[in-house]
Amino acid sequence: MDGDQMIAHHAGGIPLHNSPLHNTAGPTRSTQSSGRKIAALIALVAGFSAAFVLAPGMLTSRPGDGYAGEGELVETVRAAFVEYWSSGVQAFSPSLESAVDYWLRYHVAKAVIAVILLTVLLALGRMVKASFVNAGPLTVVKKLAFVSAGGLVTLLALFSSVLVMANVQGVVAPFSSLISMLPVAQTDGALSETVGQVRQQLAQSTATGNQQSPALELMISDFARYHLAMAVIALIAAAISLAVTVVVWARFARTARSERRTRFMSGSIGLLTALFTLGLIVVGVANMGTAADPAPALAAFFDGGL
């Protein structure tokens, strides 16, 4: 028998071309495939990050509507708000209704893109974690690169979840989100006079319980909805984050001490999600308090404190 047959015979009859010693290309192909997937996901993250900033305005604005840029939008909202307050009725003026509708569409687009971005970041995080855990011996520099990449992706995922929350809040209460763009600290004529009247009515209503104008009633109720939305969103997100934290720490506890990389990744993610959960609970409780008594917070905004 020839050399390959002799080796196969002494290896228990396993053909040489099927033996692990002969299959040296597998890990290399797997590593290259993993690298290509990570590169593709990074490109998607970059693309959707740019889309989050640029696409909503392009998708939702129309020529001549005054919403093409932030400066134009602020000027349009300024004029529309002054007109609305002067009308003395609760129903939006046509210009303000148009601006609120635009702002609703804008936040829907942002929320959708943020959800996609978060999904891609979660997939990228899993790929980076798997590559780190399954990599062979690593130098100090490569370990630092893996840890830095994993930490950055995790923080970006948490930040993206915040973007999702904020834009869902804007969808639920677009009017309050829109008036937050008013330059209330500026002293220009019409807006300054209007803001002064709003401040006076808010001070009278909170101090003595006087009857409020229809426009102010709507502003207060919408401001309450705005903060109630964030309270509900934050507490739901906190419940999800808490469940993830429990799962990750349970995995950490089950992992053998010899699997140091897996334990390190699980412990790091568990710590970050635990802190994130606490932050979400604080945000939820704070917004719940504001929703219960929105007038002082609205007064603080028009005083330039928010």
Please give the structural blueprint.
Blueprint: H1 3-10, H2 25-60, H3 70-87, H4 94-134, H5 140-172, H6 174-179, H7 189-208, H8 214-254, H9 260-292, H10 294-302
Helix pairs in contact: 2-4, 3-4, 4-5, 5-8, 5-9, 7-10, 8-9, 9-10
Biased composition (Polar residues): 20-32
Transmembrane segments: 38-59, 103-124, 144-166, 226-252, 264-286
Keywords: Membrane, Transmembrane, Transmembrane helix
Describe this structure in words.
Keywords: Membrane, Transmembrane, Transmembrane helix. With 306 residues, the protein is mostly helical. The chain has one domain. 80% of the residues lie in helices and 0% in strands. It has 10 helices and no strands. Helix 2 packs antiparallel against helix 4, helix 5 packs antiparallel against helix 8 and helix 7 packs antiparallel against helix 10. It starts with a helix and ends with a helix.
- Helical coverage, percent range: over 70%
- Please write the string of helix (H) and strand (E) elements: HHHHHHHHHH
User: Could you give a short account of the major beta sheet?
Assistant: none
β content, as a range? Answer: under 5%
Helix tally equals 10
Question: In terms of per-residue confidence, which ranges show pLDDT below 50 for 5 or more consecutive residues?
Answer: 2-27
If you average the pLDDT, what whole number results? 85
> Looking at the structure, what is the overall shape?
elongated
